[in-house]
Write a structure and sequence with these properties.
The chain is mainly α. It contains four helices and no strands.
Length: about 150
């Protein structure tokens, strides 16, 4: 009689996978390897070359504090003459003009230092430009109603 010998102890081998499954795993492993290789070989992008320097805005030639603030009062007076304003708008402009005159008179009494006078002149010029633009928009036609 033949005796049946027991199988040797150890891990069992998995049955062989069909050819299609093995090919799919192989192509997956190759693709993953290619991606990892490309990521490992890829360096940092080159640094961006700085552009031309941007020039500072030109210095505005300001007039005196009195001249620039007087120009604001003139701009308010011209804005008030716009034919497309209603009575409430004209009343508001009169109030702004009166308040500005009071503030300028108080500023003159305080006799600010030159740097402060320059800052006030710059603020008056900016406000005058804004009021002038508002006057141009007003003369272009009536504002839309709600």
């Amino acid at each position: 009689m033949h005796s049946i010998s027991p199988r040797p102890a150890g891990p069992r081998c998995m049955p062989a996978a069909p050819h299609g499954v093995r090919a799919a795993w192989r192509s997956c492993a190759l693709a993953l390897g290619a991606v990892l290789l490309a990521a490992a070989c890829h360096g940092e992008p080159p640094a961006v070359v700085p552009g031309e320097p941007i020039a500072a805005p030109t210095e505005v030639a300001l007039g005196t504090m009195d001249a620039e603030c007087e120009a604001l009062l003139t701009a308010l007076g011209l804005y008030k003459q716009c034919p497309n304003l209603d009575d409430d708008d004209r009343y508001d402009i009169d109030a702004w003009r009166e308040r500005a005159q009071q503030d300028f008179a108080a500023g003159k009494k305080a006799n600010p230092e030159p740097n402060a006078q320059r800052a006030i002149a710059a603020a008056c010029r900016k406000a005058a430009a804004s009021v002038t633009a508002a006057g141009e928009r007003c003369r272009a036609g009536p504002r839309p109603r709600d």
